[in-house]
Amino acid sequence: MKDYKLTLAILTVAIVWGTTFLSIRIAVETIPAWFVAGIRQLLASVIMFLILVYRKEFKWIGWKNLKYQIIFSILMLVIANGMTTVAEEEVTSSLTSLISACSPILVFLGSLALGLQKFSWRAFTGVMMCFSGIVFIFWDGINDLKNPDYALGILFLFIAIAGWASGTIFTKKLNLHSGNISLNLFYQFAFAGITQIIFAFLFSENYNFGNWTLRSVTAMLYLSVFGSVAAFFAFHYALTKVSPVQVSILAYINTIISIFLSWLILGEYISFKFIIAAVLIICGVFIINYNREMFKKQKMDKELTSNS
């Protein structure tokens, strides 16, 4: 029997997160980045709270589980999502999505270091292709790094993907399976939202609410409802079914969608070298993650049975 829930979860992550880079870029046009990130997560926590209350499932999760949720929230939401949002104040959404597509490299290297992944020359080739793609990204734009704001934005992006990879590995390493994903998400969103709102008031130079446009506010609301609640729910569900490497392979699908939308809607310039970089990174990610059995449902079912 086909796992339609898993298929829907994967499609949700691929499509919705493919639009989040575009939405973030639009949101930070008039709203300070930490406010975008903080309000996004805080609204998401309110939505999750209402869902839990309606289902009569809201409860205290215990200090041990809360600790895990806070760690995951720090890595995936405060660091990964927050730093990405801050970076997009200076970096285009297409470039942000392309650099973010490199996260499976860190997932692979981290899994290798922890013994969750075996070394292979095929995977090494994929890593080298991804690094070659990064070289193509900055081939003509290396002088742009002389701009301190732009350079800081690039640094924030690499910090973000490091946080994302760490959170992905952390979840699978501890075998964090939950009977109520919604409850865990509420605590994650609430912690991240409060933390990022505090950051917003501390680090935002100008947060004149009267300057916020409807276009930016709408993008922020989209991020809350779809980019956070729907996509993160789907992501957590997928992580309970497949390996972190298999989930992270969605990054290249997100990248294709994001680059196309950035060109179509925001009119961002996509050079030939940028396209080469995208092809190298996407192919590299695929090579790193690919094995002949990874798409076979029968094998996946056996793995799930052995892990349960």
UniProtKB/TrEMBL annotation:
InterPro entries: AA-Vitamin_Transporters (IPR050638), EamA_dom (IPR000620), EmrE-like (IPR037185). It is a multi-pass membrane protein. One of its GO terms (cellular component) is membrane. Residues 8-138, 152-289 form the EamA domain. It is found in: Membrane. Pfam families: EamA. It comes from the Bacteria. Keywords: Membrane, Transmembrane, Transmembrane helix. The chain crosses the membrane at residues 7-28, 34-54, 66-83, 95-114, 121-139, 151-171, 183-204, 216-235, 247-266, 272-290. SUPFAM superfamilies: Multidrug resistance efflux transporter EmrE. PANTHER family: INNER MEMBRANE TRANSPORTER, PROTEIN PAGO. This is Permease. It comes from Chryseobacterium bernardetii.
